[in-house]
Amino acid sequence: LIGFMGSGKSSVGRLLARKLAWPRFDTDEMVVAELGLSIPAIFAQLGEARFRDEETAALANLEIGPAAVIVTGGGVVLRPENVRRLRTLGTVVWLTAELTVLQERLARRKDRPLLQTPDPAATIERLLGERKRLYAAASDFANATSTLDHEKSAQAIPKALPEH
After folding, report:
1. CA gyration radius, the chain
2. How many CB atoms lie within 10 A of CB 90?
3. Residue 69 near residue 17, CB atoms below 8 Å
4. 33, 41 contact by CB (below 8 A)
5. What is the DSSP secondary-structure string of 102-137?
6. If DSSP codes are grouped into helix, strand and coil, which group holds residue 69?
7. Number of C-beta neighbours around residue 84 at 10 A
8. CA distance 40 to 63
9. With pLDDT > 70 as the criterion, what percentage of the chain qualifies?
10. pTM summary value
11. Coil, strand or helix at 82
12. β partners of residue 96
């Protein structure tokens, strides 16, 4: 699963893994476990570049069986090697959401390092604009989450997977 922060990747990923009875791997959780720091602490103490390096390493070292759900961070598509790796692992699903929906969802959470700016809504708009084409190019298909709850999003994905 790829997509912008607030698109529902973590929640949908948990539900999807449960529904399919597949293991779930979350690159953010893997980086946190590796460094022993929260994501805000990683960004504050080590910087975004170090976080991205660890995210790339987590993906590169990921060993999965025949099927799994992989949940990625919103910036995973910024590095072409991450996209190449995801495509070798299987079907890439882009969880999308409208800008206003993302801004509303993200306004509820104050722990997003990239949104610690004077105008978080403008930052969301800028980052989404920068990343949208990367998500589109990296994905096999998109799942719009603006009007679906997490459960309905998780139910829609298996229907579009090649082996289902």
Report:
1. 15
2. 17
3. yes
4. no
5. HHHHHHT----GGG-SS-HHHHHHHHHHHHHHHHHH
6. strand
7. 12
8. 27
9. 99
10. 0.92
11. helix
12. 144
Q: What is the pLDDT of residues 29-61, one digit of tens each?
A: 999 999 999 999 999 999 999 999 999 999 999
Q: E-strand spans in 66-113?
A: 69-71, 93-96
Find, among 157, 100, 91, 149, the residue nearest to 128 by Cα.
100
**Which residue type does 73 have?**
G
3-state SS assignment for residue 138: helix
Mean pLDDT calculated for residue range 110-129: 90
DSSP output for 6-64: TSSHHHHHHHHHHHHT--EEEHHHHHHHHHTS-HHHHHHHT-HHHHHHHHHHHHHH---
Spatial distance between the Cα atoms of 144 and 156, rounded to a whole number of angstroms: 10
pLDDT of amino acid 117: 86
